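Appendix B. Chain record.
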Amino acid sequence: MNIEELLRETLSDMARQEEPPPPGRFLRAGTSRSPRWGLALAAAAVTVMVVATTLVVEGLSTRRAAPGGLTGQGTGEWLADTGQGRRPLTVQEGQRLSQILDQLSRVTGKPLKEFVRAAKDGDALGLPAYAKGAPEGFLFPSTYEVSPRSGPHELLAAMVARFNRAAEDTGLVEGARRMGRTPLEIVTVASIVQAESARERDMPKIARVIYNRLDATPRMRLQLDSTVMYGLGKYGARASDKDLTSRSRYNTYTHLGLPPGSIGSPGEDAIRAALHPATGPWLYFVTTDPRRAVTKFAASEREFFELVEEHRKNLRSR
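Structure tokens predicted for this chain:
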């Protein structure tokens, strides 16, 4: 069973529940979690060093002087060896847990089940308490230089450590308290902002749309295709009519409020947008020109339908 099948099976279980599942249902640790991995990580003394914008992941047994920075663009695959046997691996903003685990398995040659097992051990990974044991959204997108001796727990723990640093840099916990939200809600909003934004500059406005809909009276559903697709284990920009009938708790067309957890790994810009949304009355956004990544915002249904028509005209003119 691959990771996508595992997630879909979990989602199928969720759909049969009458009560909403707890946040972080995916790949959560069981009640019989062993502390051995926490001890193993302490013994390995995992090192995460910053080299330019790159994080070096290694144990004490493999630690040497750090090489210089990277050249070229990250592709999510192994690049040229940078020396001392370390190779860089890039995790892109918005990638799902399933994608990251599959990528790590593919490029390291280690079995996928080892990464799935490691992902279940939230305590050993150093997840913040508000993650509730679920790593989705907490494996920070960045470039990591990985030693051949780095194991699944070390790699995932390094990504969580990088998230924890970003959370501190952005003041995530205090910012959430100030906004009357939980830190997990902020990470969830940031993951949606990351998935829905074509450009960085649109992120604060998209965050504002999300909050305006959550706080509207009478209450409004978020109605976001990105959450629906995540709940179904699918990829793509648009959900089909059949997709919108899903019973998943991630179906924000049928369920009020935020989904039960993150839908991917947000970058720092998305986290900042979730903490510092733009000021405005918008309740809708439409990517009116997908080719040029132009997104426009509306405060009324009339304006929304005008943007939808603009979107259709731009598609017809391509």
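Further analysis of this model is presented in Appendix C.
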